[in-house]
Amino acid sequence: MQGQQPPDLSNVDLTHAKDIECEECGNRGFRQTMMLKKLSALVSPNGQEAIIPVMAFACDKCGHINKEFEKMDIS
Ligand SMILES: [Zn+2]
Asked: What's the structural domain count of the chain?
């Protein structure tokens, strides 16, 4: 026991990890970006229209955001 240590990922076998590719151009480089969701006053908890920023990843080449990132909730 050496107290708390950050998890060591250098030994993880990535052989079976899946590469995520851009749905549009097949590029495998992504950059972190922000999507904005507009919440209508009807469903907003305080009854006012709200804009909510959501983290997402966009293709570094064409800027496309894969569907699976849109559904992902990582905020
Ligand atoms: Zn792309």
From this structure: 1
